[in-house]
Amino acid sequence: MARLKKDFLSELSHKLGTIPEKDAILADYDSHLDDMLIEMMDTAEAEVKEAIYSRLGSPEEIAEMWRDEVTVTPSNMKWLFVLLNVLLFTGGAMLTAAHNLFEWGWLRTIWGYLTSIPVVISFVYMFFWALLGYEIGRSFGHKGKRLVRKTFLLALIPNLTMMVLTVFGIIPHEWFDPLLTNQFIVACIAFTALLYPVSILGYYWGKRASV
Question: What does the pLDDT look like over 122-136, one tens digit per residue?
Answer without folding.
Answer: 888 889 889 888 988
